[in-house]
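Incident log, structure service

09:12 report received: a user says their structure output differs between two submissions of the same chain.
09:20 pulled the input from the user's history:
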Amino acid sequence: MNMVILLPIGVPILVGMMLWMSSFAEHFRKEKKKKAPGNRIALYAVSILLLTACAAAAVVLSWTGDRQLTLTELVDGIPLYFYIDDLGKLFVTVVSVIWVLTSVYCYSYLKEEGADKRFLGCFLALYGVLVGLCFAGNLVTMYLFYELMTLVSTPLVMHNRSREAILAGLKYLFFSLCGAYAGLFGIFVLNRYCDTLVFLPGGSLSPEMAVSYAGILQAAVFVMLIGFGAKAGMLPLHAWLPTAHPVAPSPASAVLSGVIVKFGVFAMIRVVCYVVGTELIRGTWVQTVWMVLSLCTVFMGSMLAFREPVFKKRLAYSTVSQLSYIVFGLSLLNPAALTGALLHVVGHAVIKCGLFLTAGVFLSKYGCTKVSELSGIGKKQPKVLWCYTVFALGLIGMPFTAGFVSKWNLAVGSLTSKTGVFAVLGPIVLLISALLTAGYLLPVTMHGFFPGESETAGRQGNPEKERTDWWMLLPLLVLAVLTVLLGTFPGKLVSYFEELSGLLIG
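09:34 re-ran on a clean worker, output below:
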């Protein structure tokens, strides 16, 4: 019965690859047929229904019963192993919600971009890969799907095939592979000294090995943290984010920034809390450098976002900063801080996906790429700008939004972490970053609704094209409601994360 674990993994990957290969066959066909509108509607209807069914199956499998599956043995003693645990449940639920909402949005957005089959093929296959990553039961299985995630997501960055998109995709691929190879080096070391690479809450490394080989193990963990930090946008391997987001289609930017970057954090949690254990690095140079890098990234990302005039690039720098909130919470090795970090995984996924989807509306309807061009946009798109405002307030951390709950727990966790100067420095940096976040997000709302006499009253567009249909508006409304609900009624979610954090760190 546990073979059903493979359904939400294999079905999207197989269907996605079939669509992808079909798009290439059409591209090289000599006689190109004009596509009927009904064919496009049927393609999206089937894709969305299939994705929704796979997402529902993945979530139901995650929250019902204890499931594990050993598919095959890769090498002696290292199986391709799947196991659905508490951390996997969290991430697969977040991925499924974001993926379904973004797939609905894609129908209208990609009318202008074109190449529907190619995009949908990558989009479906990437969902299956991410489910496999969430369900991975050991370090090697996780690494295989982690690499697949990079390979399958790269075509989304390159989708429009412009020179800038190709270069951005190659840069994303280079940074991601460099980070993944650093992670692979660490896996080789851990395989030598750990009794097993299977994920166990609290870690599987024996205390005797941790004492006898502390130096080499700490060095290996540090290299892995830097490597997996590339996907999470942590210094020094963060440069791909502001390059990739402006050229990728907005739905691709939404899932990259809202979901895929979180799997850098996911890999860090697996290594620190499920393999080596937190005691190996607590109070060592590894923890100190990790905290320094995360706080530097928080501040640097916010400052660069504050100074950036290009809207999507500003949001990309914001992701660099906000992801390091999560990394900092993890680096404190404190249950309360880890609770805040996990809450920010959920809240940031919802909020940042919403922000990039609003950017997609402004770009597709009016061609607005810079913040200065959004003046008066509220007169043309009031519903969309109100949704943007909710997301902005959530990212700042205003009360009754998801961002407030996560940042409050991060601050409390930092103050009670007994990490010396970092216990106080952390909340200070987070507060400065929140002020900078208000400085680079709220002016869009203010100038959008109140442009002033000297400013343009919104970019003029084609009246027929200006209408925002429900395919684009509905996902924004759902994400805005989730932003408020997660901040207004966080009780059960906080309790779940507190229990999980206590289990991992104690």
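09:41 both user submissions now match this output. Likely a transient worker issue. Closing.
09:42 reviewer note: Residues 335-366 form the longest helix (32 residues). The two ends are 34 Å apart (CA to CA).
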